[in-house]
Amino acid sequence: MSENILIELKGLTKRYGYGDTESFALKDFDLSVKRGEFIMIMGPSGCGKTTLLDIIGLLDRATQGEYYLNGENVAGISARRQAKLRAKKIGFIFQNFNLIDDLPIIENVSLPLVYSGYTKTSRLKKASTALKRFHLEEREYYLPYQLSGGQQQRVAIARAIVGDPEIILADEPTGNLDSRSSHIVMEELKAIHEEGNTIIMVTHNPALTVYATRVINMLDGQIDTDVKTVSDANLPQPISVRIKKKDNEFASLTENDTKPSKKHKKSRRKK
Ligand SMILES: Nc1ncnc2c1ncn2[C@@H]1O[C@H](COP(=O)(O)OP(=O)(O)O)[C@@H](O)[C@H]1O
Ligand SMILES: [Mg+2]
Questions:
Q1: Residue nearest to atom 1 of ligand 1 (CA)
Q2: 53 lines ligand 1 (CB under 6 A)
Q3: Is 16 in the pocket of ligand 1 (CB under 6 A)?
Q4: Measuring from atom 20 of ligand 1, which residue has the nearest CA?
Q5: 0.70 exceeded by the pTM?
Q6: Cα(157)–Cα(261) distance, rounded to whole angstroms?
Q7: Which of 97, 117, 134, 226 is surrounded by the fewest CB atoms within 10 Å?
Q8: Residue 203 Cβ < 6 Å to ligand 1
């Protein structure tokens, strides 16, 4: 398997019910995702989009089939290992933000780091840095309800990227937002993608596909159409790879994992 392949799904099937009540949310689904792709998934309600994201995100399991994440077959692993992998490798963004109501946003953002072995202080530091990127540094101790929908979704994006995941999954992230907030959220996702991150996003809004490098239309649990709008050779590379290639003065910044903010600061300077 090419080292550039992040996700490989083979013959993935998700069945609900048996006999008369049997139905398939996914049917013999194959998909291969390269690092740096920004895939948008579209299709009518009920065609299996959320099921697909939940399985990729290790929130759910297929009834049948293989799922390789970084070459490792993760379809049959224990729930505990699933949870660990999920925390380390996957960032989620949901339509309704899914923030915890009674936790200040800085603590919401720090949650994915609980499995990481960082101390609470360094978790909060990392969360604070992530919030700064989204210009929410003055609201760290606000509760989610004190923010607008667009701000809450930016908190959710900060939470999704705080642990430097391999892949970011977004299920209709702009579905509850007005067009101005949608635009801001999409620009943030675009910037995250340009840093070399891999994103899979479900949307109902065809206008948003301009941000994608690949658009997949699903129908009845299967792929109907699959169109790449950017060739694999032109996908953005992770910043760490770019730095290695250039061997330049930023090289030391990626070495120290306790200072992830450099990556984010660097991208802000670019703007
Ligand atoms: N827990 C469940 N039990 C039974 N059927 C389900 C369950 N979850 C999803 N489904 C069915 O699976 C299909 C795909 O659902 P979903 O992945 O949510 O679609 P989408 O996100 O594209 O709207 C739908 O027909 C839905 O009714
Ligand atoms: Mg859905």
A1: 16
A2: no
A3: yes
A4: 46
A5: yes
A6: 15
A7: 117
A8: no
Residues, CB-to-ion distance under 5 Å, ligand 2: 49-50
Quick: pLDDT tens for 81-96: 998 899 889 999 999 9
Q: Is 234 exposed, middle or buried (0-12, 13-18, 19+ CB in 10 A)?
A: exposed
Q: Is 55 in the pocket of ligand 1 (CB under 6 A)?
A: no
Is any ligand 1 atom within 6 A of the Cβ of residue 45? yes
* CB-based contact 251:239 (threshold 8 Å): no
Which residue in the block uniquely carries the two structure tokens 């699933």?
82
Structural domains of the chain sorted by starting position, each given as residue range(s) with its CATH number in brackets: 5-270 (3.40.50.300)
Query: What is the CA(140)–ligand 2 centre distance, in A?
Result: 30
- CA 214–ligand 2 middle distance (angstroms): 19
51 CB under 6 A from ligand 1?
Answer: yes
Distance CA 74, CA 55 (A): 10
Sign of CA pseudo-dihedral 114, 93, 4, 14: positive
Kindly give the distance from the C-alpha atom of residue 44 to the centroid of ligand 2, in angstroms, as a whole number.
Answer: 9
